[in-house]
Specification:
Elements lengths: L7 E8 L3 H12 L8 E8 L6 H11 L3 E5 L5 H11 L4 E4 L4 E3 L3 H12 L3 E3 L8 H12 L1 H4 L11 E2 L7 E3 H7 L10 H11 L4 E3 L5 E3 L5 H22 L9 H15 L5 H25 L8 H24 L14
Parallel strand pairs: 1-2, 1-4, 2-3, 6-9
Antiparallel strand pairs: 4-8, 5-10, 7-9
């Protein structure tokens, strides 16, 4: 592979059936303001889209040589990332997401953070901005530590070492040392990769100067299904490494187990279920108030209890289903094996 004359940064992004969003993504990625002397290439790995996304990407690629359409026959995120990574020529690799809005200096700040810290992977805070009334409620819950735990990845102001980062920016040498993404994982492939880095002695760094806005799910049903998928793949990561990415990821599963156990004994001993439901209702009420106040959006308050329950129950139920498949050594079902938002 011929090395470019000037330093090159490669953007990699997987997608499938994103016709409504693909033009905005291409515009944002190609408008990145790089430091002097740097060049850009954007590689989009399409998972055999059938809604016109692939054709539109081909049109855009014909108009701008910096944009390249990569085939992703595996159709999932991990195979798409690896397909793009295999053809990326950059000395630095940056992952983009189709449904995230990036600041014009996003890549420039990533490069600055790599130079400043010498880290093996850098990224910015994971900040959500929802659309519509329900989308705003989902985003408010997403940013609240009382809903998703004290993950530093949701802290807009934090600057320092972390366990994982949103999306990521890596020197090419990081992939040479640790390999690419695990193609057995439909979800959580980024968390697994970051865990693999940490266990291998790598450093991960979050910078508040790296700015982006993520568009979360816009309905409770979509949110619940997303969280079920995230929860489902967590035990597969734990089986591979013998530990979770963090202990807070186990809390929803423990809550679901307590709820199921107390429901089973309720006909003979109703108090555990009543007390658990009362305690959770009080928690959800308090967490809803805290999330709405933090978001500065009182209009989300009525929807937040349902949103919070979808986060916790979806992730917890998914974790138990994944754990059952791991214990029984079953392959993941087809419903968990598609590249979807």
């Amino acid at each position: 592979m011929t090395e470019p004359a000037m330093p090159l940064v490669s953007v990699i992004a997987p997608c499938r059936n994103e016709r409504a969003a693909i033009d905005a993504f291409c515009d944002s990625a190609l408008a990145q303001q790089l430091p002097p002397g740097w060049q850009l290439e954007v590689l989009v790995a399409d998972g055999r889209s059938d809604d016109g996304t692939r054709e539109r990407l081909a049109e855009r690629a014909a108009q701008d040589a910096r944009l390249k359409l990569i085939d992703n026959p595996g159709r999932i995120v991990s195979t798409g990332l690896n397909a793009a990574l295999a053809q990326a020529r950059g000395k630095v690799i940056v992952r983009f997401d189709i449904h995230t809005e990036f600041a014009p200096d996003y890549i420039a700040e990533c490069l600055a953070a790599l130079a400043r810290t010498g880290a093996d992977n850098v990224g910015g805070p994971w900040v959500a901005r929802g659309q519509g009334a329900m989308g705003r409620a989902v985003a408010a819950a997403f940013q609240s530590r009382w809903v998703v735990g004290g993950a530093r990845s949701r802290d807009r102001a934090y600057e320092g070492p972390v366990d994982t980062v949103y999306l990521g920016c890596w020197p090419r040498a990081t992939f040479d040392r640790f390999g690419g993404f695990d193609e057995r994982l439909v979800r959580n492939q980024d968390d697994e990769h970051n865990l693999r880095l940490r266990l291998g002695g790598a450093r991960l760094w979050q910078s508040a100067r790296i700015r982006s806005l993520y568009q979360p799910r816009g309905s409770v049903r979509q949110l619940f299904n997303q969280q079920m998928q995230y929860g489902y793949w967590r035990p597969f990561v734990m089986r591979k490494h013998g530990q979770p990415g963090s202990l807070r990821q186990l809390v929803p599963a423990l809550f679901v187990a307590a709820l199921a156990g107390s429901a089973l004994v309720a006909p003979w001993w109703p108090w555990p279920l009543a007390l658990l439901l009362a305690a959770y209702a009080a928690y959800v009420a308090g967490a809803s108030l805290a999330a709405a106040r933090q978001a500065g959006d009182a209009g989300t308050l009525a929807r937040l209890p349902l949103v919070i329950a979808a986060y916790h129950l979806g992730y917890g139920v998914g974790t138990w289903r994944g754990l059952l498949d791991v214990l029984l050594r079953r392959n993941a079902g087809q419903r968990w094996s598609r590249l979807t938002r």
